[in-house]
Amino acid sequence: MIILPAIDLFHGQAVRLLRGNYDDMTIYDVEPVNTARKFKSEGAQWLHIVDLEGARSGEAVNLDTVMKIREACGLKCEVGGGIRDMKTIEHYVSSGVERVILGTSAVVIKNFAAEAVKEFGSDKIAVGVDIKDGNVAIKGWTENSELEAVNFCQRMQDDGITTIISTDISRDGAMKGTNVKLYETLSEKLSMNIIASGGVSSLDDVKALAKLNLYGAIIGKAYYTGAVKISQAIEATKS
Description:
By secondary structure, the chain is α/β, with parallel strands linked by helices. The protein is 38% helix and 30% strand. The protein is built from 11 helices and 12 strands. It has an 8-stranded parallel barrel, surrounded by 8 helices. Helix 1 (32-41) runs parallel beside helix 3 (63-73).
């Protein structure tokens, strides 16, 4: 299982939200390039980046910052937030981003995910499945859709998506542990690469997810608060 340290961007800064609440935001680094370099020094190979402003507005607001981070740290990057048209996907892919994450667009635009896979390949396209009360949340977690999460994942699988990033919003940033049961259910029902996100708060969480043979796990607030070092998390996946 790979470990993907996270950088959430707002006004070009590395921040964290509590349970997706934009009014409960903590700034951790005004220059996120420095954070990305620290991740690399601890052995990370991948970086998970979210443009929070883009997720809410539907535009890739922090695109220039994303590219600056990638060029400076040399890590493989997956990027999400505000990616709602083929032009934006093309810009990221042509700039060297390894994987683009579709969120709201995969929910509200008919066949968008399938068309993106056809255009760019399944290795370049992932879908973020952000879950609130069992349903898929959209528009930077500010709205809840009527789509049941597992059914939506199965639909994405049918559309050719091979990687999902699943976030339990109730756990995100809360430091109360990850939802192992959720990822166990998804693993049983899907034949996809599953990346767990939200609530990974300890090395025990990392070990529990690794035992499910997930593709990856994202670490955000646990790193920023000092609860988990990236190097320790990577080592924990091997035990």
